[in-house]
Design goal:
The complex is a heterodimer of chains A (about 260) and B (about 900). Chain A is an alpha+beta fold and about 260 residues long. Chain A is built from 8 helices and 10 strands. In chain A, helix 7 runs antiparallel to helix 8. Chain A has 2 domains: about 220 residues, Alpha-Beta Plaits, CATH 3.30.70.20; about 45 residues. The longest helix of chain A has 21 residues. Among the domains of chain B are: about 140 residues, Rossmann fold; about 160 residues, Barwin-like endoglucanases, CATH 2.40.40. Chain B contains 23 helices and 34 strands. In chain B, the strands form 12 sheets. Chain B has a 6-stranded mixed barrel with strand order 26-32-27-29-28-34. In chain B, strands 3-2-1-7-8 form a 5-stranded parallel beta sheet, with helices on both faces. In chain B, strands 5-25-33 form a 3-stranded antiparallel beta sheet, with no helix packed on it. The longest helix of chain B has 18 residues. Chain B is globular. The chains are: A alpha+beta (about 260), B alpha/beta (about 900). The interface between A and B is large, with 37 and 43 residues.
Chain lengths: ~260, ~900
């Protein structure tokens, strides 16, 4: 059965307990940051920051809106990273989320370009052969022991909850209809996106206002690789040529992304 | 908190004012969110704050106010409610407001002294009757009052207004001119929505939304709660701010009920416990009054503070005709004396005897008005003057956290010795080599004792909801670190060793002090917190009836005046069962309360006697039935009245006194106990004559105000003629220090903003750091989140001074300046106050010059470098929240 994390932005106070709990459980070192005129920090995801909260003040607002949004791996069903990963290091866990076997990551970085949410980050050097991808792994070790992911465990307000994905969808839909009845432009994000994300969002405005891509897509060329060429490629052309082809596909995907202004 | 954290979920409307609960008490939002998202009748959330915070982002209504104008805002709400009450028909009035509560459970209907005069009296504008200016105020209060005309017309048995009691009035003139409710109206009549907007900057329409939403909790069965914190208290009139909340809550019948109350969100995990245990200078453990030099004997003390100070007063004409006045109760049950004598026994045990007044003369006595007072500000004033020569600082970091922090750092240079107990070398411990100090000329000997952290020791923590929860030790302290208790223990034993063989007023209290807390095993060489806790609860000091010496008392009801019991704090007497189970260790997760309102009475223990919601006798009607069927706190069990004892079976929470309901006792011809059992009159104080500035809060300007006139009272500042200005412009009784307070008072300069201090500055905390930063500024994960001190400001101000988001700016006050990163945001907005355009600047005070994360300027960039050495008229809590400043590009 698929599991999911439900993030309800309307209950989030951006205390960032989740951000710290993520670092604590996963033994991620702190980054040296500076304040650039916002509460938000670190500035972006990194190999040491798998989860961060966004603080969004709409630039044309009246100062009475402050949105908080979660930024971490979305654990897509149609997951670009899984499709392009040549070694199977990134894969779908039986409970639906995108798990990661770091030991067999070759450091190719294709997943970085295949991700429509700009989540995977590379660390280390290709030369030493120790280059690796890093991202949120859904606290697979905790989940396997029937514990909630660390971020969920620490959330004081219930803005993060965890459970069967079908139940999370139900709860999210109930919450959205309740908010809508109160006149909020509430939306559920992640139910159908990319065949269903395993991180669901209850939003009080459009996804764009939370800096989430509307209708995220895995580039067609990545899909092509997975569905046709990956199978055929290794068999017929050989791994080297396949890799080259993949390179081409990923480069194309990147170009498409840039065109779309992401 | 009158209530407790979980109870927030029972509220119908949550007013967060003077608090940024989402950021500074994040867990509170578990319950706020639960209230707001419950299926039936979800609660509304109101956030009142100068800036739009993470709390405001979750609110249904956000009301901006100028920092320091709470009284104008709350006074406006009180006016709205009174005006509404007066304009409604009698029937509608009784439906919309709980008139039984208002008239029978508060002093609304009582008649005040005929010569009382309010602040509108033209002979003393802005002031109540009886004011005298203090000719030599610094350090000290600007002025004081004779309160002789603030009391009830008949002090022993006050009259009540029959028209008010009978809901038989239409106009204010139908009520006795000195009836409390009418005086309340006169006090706030001018606090119109227009006036509120003019003074606070809150738009009228927003203000009226707040009033409407909150006034709706006045209906019987509805509950509104107020969550407040340091944004309320840390003002020269902080106590009056809270009085305003109390009046509001009593008008609406919101005290004692589930989902109601006045809920102080305490600043640290155990502030409640430290207050209970007398870490403040005006009280002994259990809120017993500290002794002053005029009270030389136990009998004088008991007579003055207990017999006279707590004598029962019975208002005429109320349904209830008996006031418990618990502190005294009766000549045969002199509770005040029982509690004090039991405390003296705990401290001096066998050496405390009836013959020697139970060692009463060993208690330190405050010499009021002489040498020094022992409040935070007063102590540092005395340090600066060389009166106080040694100082122990425990779990505090005044070099960052004290007002006028640089002034206090300089004061430390006068000390002969300083002992700091902390986890890290704090700014306070390192004051002697801070930037600008000359270590060669500072003679202070500094002792730094490494303290154990919370996981390295066991003991109880009392949270804001008064729950004492036992915590266990997870690991041994690192290195030479020791728990605070172990350090105190070692210190006392060393003092005893040093004083051994000496006699006299200094040596006797130490030599005779009972100090026996070591036990076998883990605590063979240091004090055992379990043994300390037993003594706090109390036990028999000799055989009494079937009780043997050493047997635990049941609770404070067992304590005695004859020295046969000891108890270190009567409020905590009841924490143990008589067979020695420490209830602070109880962890029953079942909620057995009526209708599961979340009392969780088997989880930990709270004072008094595990009463989770205090004043809960006010949650029921005269017959003992809850006002709110859905959230009943207590309920009278039908037919359980025992005529012999005049008590009954109360269901639910531990009732505030076991007496039968008013109507039940009355029907039986027995004394009918009024609900507020700690008050002399048995009813709650809408009229509160005990406070320094007056019986009702009046709007004052902050010590440093951008205005020239108090817009409410019309009193001019007149700072040009006297540094003190005109009494009634500011708080007329506020406490002013000498460390810059009077001499470094910032003033606006509207002609030349670059020279004046035209912006309202305020200090606060962020979620990611804690207090003076010792623990969080040494933690890389937290530093990552909030790496540097910030100065938050609106776009208009930033434009005016040429500052861009992310620039380093200088915030300057009359005391000093700090550098910080500018956070330019729409969440701060320019306000129109009277004829002035006022901007706010907000700075966290966490940073300093030690630790992994330091401030930007060498002085550590603590917001408290900016704050003045002035404090509240009643408590001297420092004015941290409002001051004048300006911003410059660094």
């Amino acid at each position: 059965m698929a599991k999911a994390i439900l993030f309800d932005s309307t209950k989030c106070t951006a205390c960032r307990g989740c951000q710290v709990a993520c670092k604590q459980w996963n033994n991620l070192e702190a980054e040296e940051t500076v304040n650039t005129g916002t509460y938000e920090n670190p500035p972006d995801l990194s190999s040491r920051t798998w989860l961060k909260m966004r603080f969004i003040e709409p630039p044309d607002g009246d100062g009475k809106v402050w949105l908080f949004s979660r930024r971490a791996c979305m654990h897509c069903t149609e997951a670009g990273c899984v499709k392009v990963c040549p070694t199977g290091a990134v894969y779908h866990h039986e409970e639906g989320f995108v798990a990661y076997n770091k030991d067999i990551c070759s450091g190719c970085g294709y997943c970085v370009d295949a991700c429509p949410f700009d989540v995977p980050r590379m660390v280390g050097s290709t030369l030493t052969g120790k280059k690796k991808m890093e991202k949120c792994v859904f606290c697979a070790d905790r989940v396997a022991n029937e514990e909630k992911p660390a971020c969920v465990k620490t959330c004081p307000t219930g803005a993060l909850i965890y459970g069967e994905r079908t139940e999370m969808v139900d709860l999210a839909e109930q919450r959205v209809s309740k908010l809508a009845a109160d006149g909020v432009d509430a939306q559920l994000y992640g139910k159908d996106e990319l065949d269903g994300l395993h991180v669901l969002y209850v939003l009080a405005h459009s996804p764009k206002d939370y800096k989430l891509p509307v209708n995220p897509e895995v580039s067609p060329s990545v899909t092509l690789w997975q569905d046709i060429l990956k199978v055929m490629g290794y068999a017929a052309v050989g791994a080297v040529a396949g890799g080259l082809l993949l390179n081409y596909m990923v480069a194309r995907a990147r170009m498409v992304k840039e065109k779309e202004g992401k | 908190m009158t209530n407790h954290w979980i109870d927030l979920r029972n509220s119908d409307c949550i007013l967060i004012i003077g608090s940024n609960a989402a950021e500074n008490h994040p867990i509170s939002f578990k319950w706020v969110t639960a209230a707001m998202t419950r299926a039936n009748n979800p609660a509304k959330l109101i956030s009142v704050d100068p800036r739009f915070t993470r709390t405001s982002s979750k609110a249904d209504i956000y009301a901006p106010i100028r920092s320091g104008t709470d009284i104008a805002f709350i006074g406006g709400m009180i006016r709205y409610i009174l005006n509404d009450m007066q304009s409604l028909s009698r029937t509608e009035r009784a439906e919309k407001y709980n008139l039984t509560y208002l008239t029978q459970y508060t002093n609304a209907a009582l008649i005040i002294h005929s010569e009382f005069e309010g602040w509108k009296d033209p002979t003393h504008p802005g002031l109540f009757v009886g004011f005298t200016e203090n000719t030599n105020p610094a350090p000290g209060n600007l002025g004081g009052y004779s309160k002789s005309k603030w009391g009830y017309a008949d002090a022993g048995s006050p009259d009540t207004d029959a028209a008010l009691l009978g809901n038989n009035w239409t106009n204010w003139s139908d009520l006795n001119p000195k009836c409390v409710l009418r005086l309340l109206w006169e006090n706030y009549e001018d606090f119109t929505p227009e006036m509120v907007e003019k003074v606070t900057g809150c738009p009228q329409s927003t203000f009226e939304q707040v009033c409407e939403a909150y006034a709706a909790t006045g209906a019987p069965g509805k509950a509104g709660t107020i969550m407040y914190a340091m944004g309320t208290t840390q003002h020269t009139y902080g106590t009056q701010n809270i009085r305003g909340y109390a009046i509001l809550q009593l008008l609406l019948g919101n005290i004692g009920v589930a989902g109601g109350g006045i809920n102080a969100l305490r600043g640290t995990s155990n502030v409640q416990g430290s207050t209970d245990m007398c870490l403040l200078s005006h009280i002994l453990p259990g809120y017993l009054s500290v002794v002053n030099h005029k009270l030389q004997t136990l009998e004088q003390y008991v007579d003055t503070v207990g017999r006279k100070g707590k004598a029962p007063v019975v208002p005429k004409g109320l349904a209830g005709d008996k006031s418990a006045s618990w502190w005294w109760l009766s000549e045969s049950a002199q509770n005040y004396k029982k509690y004090l004598v039991s405390l003296l026994k705990a401290w001096w045990m066998d050496n405390a005897t009836e013959e020697n007044d139970f060692c009463f003369n060993y208690l330190p006595k405050i010499n009021a008005g002489q040498d020094a007072d022992y409040t935070h500000i007063g102590t540092f004033e005395a340090v600066a003057k060389g009166i106080v020569k040694g100082m122990m600082v425990w779990g505090q970091n005044p070099a960052v956290g004290g007002p006028d922090a640089e002034g206090e750092r300089k004061a430390l240079e006068k000390l002969d010795w300083l002992m700091v107990t902390d986890l890290f070398e704090t700014e306070t411990a390192a004051f002697w080599y801070r930037d600008g100090a000359d270590p060669g000329s500072i003679g202070t000997e500094v002792f730094l004792l490494p303290a154990a952290c919370s996981y390295e020791k066991q003991g109880s923590i009392s949270n804001s909801g008064r729950w004492a929860q036992w915590r266990y030790k997870a690991l041994d302290p690192i290195g030479e670190a020791k728990s605070d208790l172990a350090i105190v223990d070692a210190l006392v034993l060393k003092l005893k060793e040093k004083y051994a063989g000496e006699t006299g007023p200094k040596a006797d209290p130490i030599n005779q002090l009972y100090w026996d807390y070591h036990t076998e095993g883990e605590y063979a060489d240091e004090a055992d917190p379990n043994k300390v806790a037993l003594e706090i609860h109390g036990y028999y000091t000799k055989d009494v009836g079937d009780k043997k010496k050493g047997d635990l008392v049941t609770n404070f009801v067992s304590l005695a005046t004859d020295g046969s019991t000891c108890s270190g704090n009567w409020l905590y007497s009841g924490m143990f069962t008589t067979d020695g189970r420490n209830k602070a260790k109880d962890r029953d997760p079942v909620d057995a309360s009526l209708n599961q309102i979340g009392l969780y009475s088997g989880w930990s223990w709270c004072w008094p006697i595990n009463r989770r919601i205090i004043y809960n006798r006010a949650s029921v009607d005269l017959d003992g039935s809850p006002w709110d069927d859905i959230h009943p706190v207590i309920a009278y069990q039908e037919g359980s009245h025992n005529p012999a004892t005049n008590t009954c079976k109360w269901l639910g929470d531990i009732a505030d006194g076991g007496w039968s309901p008013i109507a039940v006792s009355k029907n039986d011809g027995k004394p009918a106990y009024l609900p507020f059992i700690m008050q002399n009159e048995g009813v709650a104080h809408i009229w509160g004559p005990g406070r320094a500035e007056g019986p009702l809060p009046v709007a004052y300007e902050p010590w440093e105000s951008p205005l020239e006139t108090n817009l409410v009272t019309g009193v001019p500042a007149q700072l040009d003629e006297s540094p003190k200005g005109m009494p009634g412009f500011n708080d007329p009784c506020c406490y002013v220090g000498d460390l810059g307070g009077m001499n470094q008072r910032g003033r606006p300069n509207w002609e030349d903003p670059t020279n004046g201090f035209n912006c309202v500055g305020t200090t606060y905390r962020v979620s990611e750091h804690w207090q003076a930063g010792q623990m969080t500024r040494n933690h890389p994960w937290l530093i990552e989140l909030q790496p540097q001190p910030i100065a938050e400001m609106g776009e208009e101000l930033a434009d005016d001074v040429g500052v861009k988001n992310g620039d380093i700016v200088k915030v300057v006050t009359a005391r000093g300046s700090i550098e910080a990163v500018a956070v330019v945001t729409k969440r701060f907005r320019r306000m129109t106050i009277g004829d002035k355009q006022v901007d706010h600047v907000g700075v966290p005070w966490h940073w300093g010059y030690k630790g992994l994360s330091k401030g930007i300027s060498p002085n550590g960039s603590s917001g408290n470098v900016l704050t003045p050495h002035v404090g509240d008229a009643n408590t001297t809590i420092p004015e941290y929240k409002t001051f004048l400043c300006r911003v410059e590009k660094a």
